[in-house]
């Protein structure tokens, strides 16, 4: 039988709730500790999710015996600090996206993981979903011919709570880092790092980017036309166009349950990916598998790709004029 992987969670907000619920569906894995800035919230969350330990500070989580991995689900601005806290204690880390606020922070995280020989991975859950794997398989089969254009958008209107992380510049708020990361990630996964980056952005009432459009070109080969917005409900689809046909990843493309392959000639094919979880179980299984094999990073979403992604995000932000206090440190 596989070794049971004992998980802890730091920061128990909205996404931690879904993660904990999906963790409960993964075989040979258990939530053993939750850490919050509030002991009452930790006890309440821990009780609901059957966690063995609940702590009222992040540092206390390291008192947990046999803790294998920690999932970091705090606002973007504290990802680097929380990750380094765990790595310095030699505990494996799965850290939410964006991995950190900028390239400098991500480099520090990666260097520390290498120095401590400790597992580190960005929680880019889309990479591990069966739908994403199928898209890559179709592209590899050359069913699309040569890819010429990738189009993806992500847009919705979040509730207006200026003090919360989503719209608050102090916490790295704004559409681009929160949801624009998904089109950027898809372009990097499929087309690689662009040779040309163009971007432009509008600002919302709290000063964070509301709508950002970004265009990437890859030599003379292909182009990605991408956007994100907190100002409107958009299709939130991705389409990859090739010389022989196209693939549509249906709404919301980043965790889609349906993709359609539409060849220029012949019948379209629909692929369905039904699931009973939110979909975070796949990234959890990847971490568990890596830890059982004694690996310090994932081959599916390696640290080199996380570094390229943050470089892409930084460069796009620079073009679009999206600036945070953390950029100046
Ligand atoms: N993969 C995905 O699908 C997905 C989806 C949503 C969000 N995310 C990412 O996950 C991270 C958390 O997002 P979320 O929506 O869960 O946020 P959230 O609901 O605001 O929760 C964040 C948690 O972080 C902790 N925290 C630590 N310092 C904080 C501070 N100064 N202000 C507020 N909270 C602080 C809080 O937990 P305690 O009070 O317990 O310490 C809070 O509950 C973000 O980086 C986001 O990009 C990923």
Structure, described:
The protein is α/β, with parallel strands linked by helices and 329 residues long. The chain has 2 domains: 5-123, NAD(P)-binding Rossmann-like Domain (Rossmann fold, 3-Layer(aba) Sandwich); 130-278, Dihydrodipicolinate Reductase, domain 2 (2-Layer Sandwich), CATH 3.30.360.10. It is built from 8 helices and 14 strands. A hairpin with an 8-residue loop joins strand 12 (245-249) and strand 13. The longest helix is centred in the C-terminal third of the chain and has 18 residues, at 303-320. The chain starts with a strand and ends in a 9-residue tail after the last helix. The site of NADP nicotinamide-adenine-dinucleotide phosphate has 22 residues, from helix 1. Residues 5-121 form the Gfo/Idh/MocA-like oxidoreductase N-terminal domain.
List keywords for this structure.
single chain, 329 residues, alpha/beta, Rossmann fold, Dihydrodipicolinate Reductase, domain 2, 2 domains, eight-stranded mixed sheet, six-stranded parallel sheet, 8 helices, 14 strands, 31% helix, binds NADP nicotinamide-adenine-dinucleotide phosphate
What's the number of helices?
8
By DSSP, the count of extended strands is 14
Q: Please, how many domains?
A: 2
**What does the main sheet amount to?**
8 strands, mixed
Structural class: alpha/beta
Low-confidence stretches: none
Distance between the termini: 48 Å
Helical content band:
25-40%
String of helices and strands:
EHEHEEHEHEHEHEEEEEEEHH
**CATH level-4 homologous superfamily of the largest domain:** Dihydrodipicolinate Reductase, domain 2
The geometry reads as: globular
